[in-house]
Amino acid sequence: MRASRFLIATLKQNPSDAVAVSHQLMLRSGMVRQLASGLYTWLPMGLRVFRKVEAIVREEMDRAGAQEVLMPVVQPSELWQESGRWEQYGPELLRITDRHDNRFCLGPTHEEVITDLIRNELRSYKQLPANFYQIQTKFRDEVRPRFGIMRAREFTMKDAYSFHLQQSCLQDTYDRMHSAYCKVFNRIGLDFRPVLADTGSIGGSSSHEFHVLADSGEDDIAFSTASDYAANVELAEAVAPTDERPSPTQEMTKVATPGQNTIDEVSKSLEVSPKQVLKTLIVLGEEDEAGNQGLVALVLRGDHELNELKAEKLVGVASPLTFAPDAKIQETLNCSPGSIGPVGLKIPVLVDRSAAVVADFACGANKDGYHLTGVNWERDLPLADTADLRNVVVGDPSPCGKGTLEIKRGIEVGHIFQLGTKYSEAMRATVLDENGKEQVMTMGCYGIGVSRVVAAAIEQNFDDNGIIWPEAIAPFQIALIPINMHKSEAVRAKCEELYEQLTAAGYDVLFMDEEKARLGVMLADTELMGIPHRVVVGDRGLEAGTVEYKGRRDADKQEVVLTELLTTLQSNVKAL
Amino acid sequence: MRASRFLIATLKQNPSDAVAVSHQLMLRSGMVRQLASGLYTWLPMGLRVFRKVEAIVREEMDRAGAQEVLMPVVQPSELWQESGRWEQYGPELLRITDRHDNRFCLGPTHEEVITDLIRNELRSYKQLPANFYQIQTKFRDEVRPRFGIMRAREFTMKDAYSFHLQQSCLQDTYDRMHSAYCKVFNRIGLDFRPVLADTGSIGGSSSHEFHVLADSGEDDIAFSTASDYAANVELAEAVAPTDERPSPTQEMTKVATPGQNTIDEVSKSLEVSPKQVLKTLIVLGEEDEAGNQGLVALVLRGDHELNELKAEKLVGVASPLTFAPDAKIQETLNCSPGSIGPVGLKIPVLVDRSAAVVADFACGANKDGYHLTGVNWERDLPLADTADLRNVVVGDPSPCGKGTLEIKRGIEVGHIFQLGTKYSEAMRATVLDENGKEQVMTMGCYGIGVSRVVAAAIEQNFDDNGIIWPEAIAPFQIALIPINMHKSEAVRAKCEELYEQLTAAGYDVLFMDEEKARLGVMLADTELMGIPHRVVVGDRGLEAGTVEYKGRRDADKQEVVLTELLTTLQSNVKAL
Question: Which family would the database say this protein is a member of (chains A, B) (predicted)?
Fold first, then answer.
């Protein structure tokens, strides 16, 4: 492509309203422009990247045996009423009314439409498994669209839906899609993790999110240093310590700690590590038959964080997890929350497994202004029920049994999910089984945020000068830059020749052929645009029979003899 | 593709609500399904065709130098208010309200969005011409969606917009797009005509519609038998006859024609051809300064039809064309409309050029119940002003000077238009010219109905058995059909081998590999689906070393020696 025939819309300044790096760089490199809040136009530069991502996704879906369809953006309310989501879905569902006063919505997702299609088209178990995907525009009326393409209102998703009679069949397709997703993100060239995700009531390993690791991610991902185990921090098990609890060495002592209520304050004042201070959190218990809710104490190490998802699943604890109001604590326990401890506590106590192996610990004395030190389980108080109550931390043993946990931030770009019969049951999507009996199908669903992948790739690959595209999705592979082309016929002729030659060799070349363009601007622009390789052609080099080559990640440029340029490129440009 | 892994959703019955052939066949062949009125899901079979059309359009747009962008479906009302269309556009514009009570619409077209983009991005005449296209979902809230994909509410368009300072620059891009459109429709394999279209006030050859010729078309297209001239019937000029008017041979005679008011009645009763009877139509004239409207008489041959578009453009005639009410005719001319004639008429008269060369004609006598025969211009009455007042008819000389006119029906699948400054003026889309002065850009716009092309291709290519796809957009090129594969290991093995071999040779093959599928059903299905070539493999043929080949348009099948199958296919399957 010749730059003179291509819209290069780079900006020198950072747009003031862009916070996320990818948002800034997509605007600055001329990939997108905002039309209205959460609505973006893809300019030619951005769309080239978008289409490359789309093509990789399509190829891998086809290879995985999914069949491409295309469903409407506009969906009739009747189907959403059947599934119950017309009422349940919040204001993110943009509901609209046509000229005949019929109600529709802009599809944020297509479970209803595909389930309606499939219940009409499939008749027999022989047609299963069936797996359909589309790459298509979605709309979610986000209350506060932000981070540019990352959380836009109109965006492009690849969404797939599979249909089965047996769980084993669903699992098989699920595994196949898991593997296809890995291929997609590997081919794009991203550092990512398939992450065990919350499945609500379904349980098992029936949902994975695919996260691109990047400091700007919104989610904390825990993963093993030695295996491919990865999970949202909230879901990673803090495995039970294998060490025995040390024997007591101290006497239990009551110490005045006036005005000291936080772990930090207590730990400093008592001169013990926060690991040796146990904190006691008071939450509401489950309702009894009369509708009364008692209190439950949760005991953790001072340096650990309560994991609410884990806690609320425990027997006896109210769900959703609710911290007891101060007044109720005061009234029941006769003490303010900052001075509570497990010794002599007259309510049910649950102890985190890591807290259960601490000896000689400090804790609240159940009397305002006092703490206990040198406390030991099974000597000063009985060891209550233990459970996994906390978030994992870096260095915890991995639940998979191999290595320890690292924690990084991740951007969710894909999600696969065993839906079960939520939609097929509500909408009566059945086929005849081998015995000629109608059976409700079970479903899987599989999404990739195609436009979001573009932004996530930038969040993971940039420097002070701009984007550093993974080769597979770079808008162009090579930037061809002439020095003073308008003054040098030799430079012009050599560039035209190289452009022909490199294009013929199958490279995607951006020839910066604009008359009188300044070298500094061209170098800055092509770095900002993240083009992985650049070749600079000038008179001085040509006299010596050389041009200059630099990879986008290289620290230094190198002189390359013209006759060796193709070889140099062959060994540097990643084959796609 | 193996049929066992592909959704073949053919229907035996014609869906009762489908009128158009393409609608029936798209449903029956399992290409699309209706989700709601005017909303369709593309099934895998249909989407394969859709994507092939899309790819051809994209390639030719790229070749023509247009740059691809992608604009949002959802557009803010503010831009439409700037252009004035928020109020002007009827209820086809689906207006919606987001959660913050901001107003948007679903884009039926993108002039406003692209003009907004370009006024922000382009600064200088040096960046012109610029031409941007997208392939994208549009929405028009048709009052009565019909003919399936042909007039759906949600559909896919390729729309392009170009920007210029000089008319010559616009004309150049326009010509380039005209030529690209011809390439698109030629590559798809359609019989089409670029047709001069009405340009309203702009005039000139600044708008062409691209029509696929098909009996079911909604428009009448007149085109030359000897050149590429084509125009909407309404716009084709009826050229002035070159023949001189014959000399009079009859005396003017007044004849009683009681109760005979139509050309048909008069022509039969007087025993003269309708060509010899002139009809006189009375319309309103232009308002004078006092606001009064007189009457004007339009005189045409009895076998010709008035062209209202032409008439209303004439000096002295009211626009839009309005027929005078009977009462006003009676009051002014003292005669009922069926007996009016030009002889002695006291109002302005305009004579169609073909009517002006008729001698010895019959016409109304301006007295109820009487006609005149043997009337001659310039003997019995002065020849009034002549003009082109009529629709062309088959056999008329072509206005291009070559050949005569044919008239066929056409389906509009593309439209190119020199927009001028309608949007750029209203939205202040300017660039600096060579003198550093701000100039409003002039625009062109260029549309192709991508989804509609699919339907139009069917309307032009079908028979009693189903679709007959042009090769370039067929969902599959070759259907490979085994006879009793579940009973014959030889058939199975040979089919697997051929499937491998043909696929490796680059053909798009649909292998009808479903166990126990009946031959008759497979033959009917693959004909219905319009697959251009089929190869049938059976035990009997294999024993003789042959398979059966038939092209979709062939009357007869032929036995082909296995070793020659590839050669046969090479000479029959059109290279794409």
Answer: Belongs to the class-II aminoacyl-tRNA synthetase family. ProS type 1 subfamily.
